[in-house]
Amino acid sequence: MAFEEKNILNRLYIIAGCMFLFALAISVKLMNIQFIDGDKYRDLAKENTTKNFIIPANRGNIYADDGSLLATSVPKYDIRFDAVTVSSKDFKENLKPLSEGLSSMFGKPVSYYQNKFRKARADKNRYLLIVKNLGYSDYIKVKNLPLFRKGPYKGGIIVEQRTVREHPIGKIAQRTVGDEAFDRPGYYAVGLEGAFNDLLTGKEGHRLKQKIAQGQWKPISDDNEIEPQDGYDIVSTINVNIQDIAHHALLKQLEYYEAEHGTVIVMEVATGEIKAVSNLGRTSNGNYYEKLNYAVGESHEPGSTFKVMALMAALEDKVIDTSSVVDTGNGRKIFYGKPVNDSKRGGYGEISAARALEVSSNIGLATIIDNGYSKNPNKFINRLKSWHLDDKTGVAIKGEGAPLIPQPGDKKWSKNALPSMAYGYNLRLTPLQTLTFYNAIANNGVMVKPRFIKEVRAWNEKVTVYNTQVINSKICSDKTLNDIREIMKNTVKRGTGRSLYSPDFSMAGKTGTARTEYWYPDWNSNPRYISSFAGFFPAEDPKYSCIVIIHKPSTKRGFYGADVSGPVFKRVAQKIFTESRNVDKVEKIEIPDTTVEKDFEKYYAKLQQPSKTIPNVTGMAGMDAVSLLENLGLRVQVVGNGTVSTQSIKSGELLKKGQLITLSLS
């Protein structure tokens, strides 16, 4: 018995010793946590319960040239409710007025909100969604409703803010303005958004939130730890009215001709400011939207619009003059084993160099350039390079297509290269690069850089102003300029663009019809064309230059530049000027009228005479007589127009205030 009791005691001692050692280990661990690793665990605890959330900065606005918004960042707010943190007293007192306020704002019954809040209270829901996507003004109203005005802890309100990019003019000019990448939120690469992303992007802020339950976080206070700083604003050169005109004119033509895609650019001649860019591509269901920035990024063989450059080179180098005779034969000519054809059956025969451009003769231009430069092709190439046709324009928008002007020694060079280039093949330009040259013709030979931005602003204060940049101060002599401008006017009056001519509105330009994908084996059975028109208006004093390019119109409806692209150019030009306000200055508006002056003097004289009798107003202007009699206290009835012929109360009778007198006017 004694032995068993001793064993039990030993076991108790062992257990007690183990418990002591365990307690000692816990104490050591606690001391270690408290004094040695304390900071580490405090930081870890804080990290698990509180966290700094990034508040994205508002991107700067993008404005049109008149201050209209093209793109802006709009804050949106989601309101949630923490049903646990609110005291029972506050919940009961404010449930009905809070529900009434929400019902008034959002149209749902008061009972709907009361039941919603009660259920959340019963379920201990700490993250109940009340309303989403509120604008700022509605957010402020909700925030100041009963209970919610007490703040996040006493009132249970949880506010989640995010920023949404909106485009007030919709999808018009979408590729020019730019948009957020659909697969990369917050990333901007295209248009003005991408070009000036560093300026538009502000500095992000931070807000401290506390973890409440199930991975949900609640702001600790109403204020941010670090306030975000908004990005700069950009004032673009885009004109909303001109953009709207260009967009709808292009869309109408694309739909009619069932074309694959097209672009329109409108440039202000003197400044190089781009006033409108429309880029529309067809979807699989036949609709059109801004798929790609064809205006800036798509280089292609320009076709006949390049004939202007070719003839200008020949005129400037004095290879020919406008009256030089060119034999185009019967419409077909062989150059180094390759046939070149004109569109007119039977050909144009012998015509002047000027007329060759007016009628867009492929043979005419190929003959001029081949005869003038075949022995020294670099002379022609160097002339084109002096006009920077082999350079990008350097616009800020990303993705500008590279031009291609081949020269002897290149893989694309052959004996046929020179005559082919004369009528717009064997080289590549983007629409914007072509327009930049045409704009220089309109601008008296001054080539200016295309520009999409006017200035950078911060809180309506100018930070940077972008001025006109000159690429080439004079592309050619005044004689060449005058000659080519006259030919471009005649192209519209009596050449390939004659269907566009209007005696009431002057335009100058050049049509273009280029084959595309002609290297495909099915081209003969399924021909594809690029139709274009480039020029400026008004022809005598150009204000705007414009280019229209439409790819792959249905050949069943038409494909020539004058028929497909020309009408878009004409519609844009005419609507710009018919919708522009003309202000006539009136030099002098105070022209004395002796009759009026005499009537006033007569009226004024009678008014100065205090009277107790009815005055004689016969012969006075009706309006003066009425004023005189009413000032005397009479009620006046008027019949007819003009001057007073008779009065119902004879002059000289005693005047009684409030008495009715009838005046007959004639």
From TrEMBL:
The chain crosses the membrane at residues 12-31. Residues 608-666 form the PASTA domain. One of its GO terms (cellular component) is plasma membrane. Keywords: Carboxypeptidase, Hydrolase, Membrane, Protease, Transmembrane, Transmembrane helix. It is found in: Membrane. CDD domains: PASTA_Pbp2x-like_2. GO terms for molecular function: carboxypeptidase activity; penicillin binding. Signal peptide: none annotated. GO terms for biological process: cell wall organization. Its main location: membrane. It comes from the Bacteria. This is Transpeptidase family protein. It comes from Aequorivita vitellina. The lineage of its organism: Bacteria, Pseudomonadati, Bacteroidota, Flavobacteriia, Flavobacteriales.
